[in-house]
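ARCHIVE CARD
SHELF: 3
SLOT: left
DATA:
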Amino acid sequence: MTYHPKSDFIATIMARGFLADCTALEDLDARFHRETVTGYIGFDLTATSLHIGNLVQIMLLRWMQKTGHRPITLMGGGTTKVGDPSGKDEMRKMLSVAEIEANAEGIRQVFARYIRYGDGPTDSPLVNNAEWLDELGYIAFLRDIGKHFTINRLLAFESVKSRLDREQALSFIEFNYMLLQAYDFLELYRRHGCILQMGGSDQWGNIVSGADLIRRVEGAEAFGLTTPLVTRSDGKKMGKSAEGAIWLNEDRMSSYDFWQWWRNVDDADVGKFLKMFTELPLEECDRLGALGGAEINEAKVRLANEVTALCRGAEAAAAAEATAREVFEKGGVGDDLPTLALDPAEVADGISVVQLIVRSGLAKSGKEAKRLIADHGARLDDAPLTDPGLMLDAAALASPVKLSAGRKRHALVTLAE
């Protein structure tokens, strides 16, 4: 039987493909229908930026706020010191407090694009779990919280079971992560009246444990909701590419490259991605996703513009599209391509084209750059590049040169003034 939700929030996330599992869906829907619900998603601070794999969760929080409810973006300043074992084959490297704080600052910039912060009834408080975890007394925690968890149950968690099944080490500090995440939910319930934790499908066990802890300790009802693992039509995990993570922050990835990633998604992904990562009406998402032939390319441009405008701003989206049209339709250079500015002293004796390909981000290593040239995938000012030993001097770089890897990835190399 198909469930017909009463609340705008549940109706929206079901229609747009955000809902995988939910505890007591009808009861949660009723709460959303009759009151302002506070819910949260936690984000560990393992890098200075989130990537597009996190965008599902960010959009979920955005829709929660847009439908009249209060989202909490929980910064994992405390849990990042431990490390979430979910989906990991090995223990994460430990970060210093200074690194974690720097990462928090970078991630805040992402949230501010999507979530409204403040003190209003649906404004989001930006909360860091270091507020309570750093002050936690270990013995008191074991006595008050640890007694509600059995080793049998923790060993049954998929995040633990999969590591042990592969005979990969799971440290005691990671084993504690599940208890800490459940405790976060309890603290957010006490401090902010939060009754809902959301997250990816790999977090289901942790989320259910938190809701159960609130029931045991406070005698109150709490809920959990997870999103599906979003994969591309080729089966690869969302957020990764051959070139690495697709970062949300400008300082980790240029707006042009970000825009290009969305412009170049597979035809079969356009409709799904429009529903999940833009705010276009569902009917328009279906119409654009159903286009074929050359028309689907304009649908991809629409997808790239909408996503980039949300994440980087309308001006960045417009500039990226203008550059793409200049590069591809007119054969020009474009004003918004990623640019490598070299100090003239660096090229006094010449610099190899292989080094330029690597430094401009078109290849990860000299070996990869040479293979790109050997496979006829590299171009210099739109001319095929065939000599991996080619050297460029200051005269050759007096005007910007365009390097290309394949048909879709480009960068400029110029001399700094």
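SLOT: right
DATA:
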Amino acid sequence: MRPASTKLRLVTLATVLLPFAGLVVAMILLWHVAFSWVYLMLLGVMYVITAFGVTVGFHRLFTHKSFQTSKPVELVLGVLGSMSIQGPLLTWVAVHRRHHHHSDDDGDPHSPHLHGDTIIATLRGFFHSHVGWMFTKHPDNLDHYVQDLRKDGLMRAVSALFPLWAVLGLLVPAALGGLLTWSWTGILLGLIWGGLVRVFIGHHLTWSVNSVCHIWGGRPFRSNDESRNNLLLGILAFGEGWHNNHHAFPTSARHGLRWWQIDLSYIVIRGMELLGLARAVRVPSVDRIEAKRADA
């Protein structure tokens, strides 16, 4: 496995940061014109609940089974994750399990490291890992990765109803925008900021775990791939950016394994456990963590 080239690192940095910088500038320039505290609230609340639907639900619960919970909680997490508009539940889980099975090797659906060393290949590798992989055909055996979930009628239903959840993810902030401002403009701006912009941010942060966290960051653990811990995405992606930790201990509900590694998704899971909403929460022992360190 070759480490990421300097070219790939620079391309990744520019491509990920520039769109977000442009969005922040647009929000500032549009303040009191087409953006305000109402739409900031809708953007923030919709992002937080749907992002936790992905990180706590789609990823740590359904994909890796790092904890257990009741059927009503599974339904809520499945619906919220689907409202992020990242694809049906079963497809999302299958692709991610395949990624772990072939991480940064042939068969990985979104590795940035399998495309060559030229400038064009570098650009192609980043684009593929960040978003291009979604335009490729899924392998015929993808269903093999979710046979356990297919036996669960609730999971099949949540996945099959993905179009409904996606539309609700746009209509809910639109309706709230209209109610909070009592205007048609509020409906439109609620749709834009709490719906479309929120989806854009959620998509790019999730995709950045696929791309950035296999290029930029530290690798404290042996993981047989190029997964890396990235501080920025560790915070913005609610703990998903501690990606090397995750690949070293994929079934762990806790990705931020050090006290300073902020992991909001694990805090939510821990809170659920204290409230009796989660059980059998899986976290590696201190001995397992120390044994797998790269310098051990």
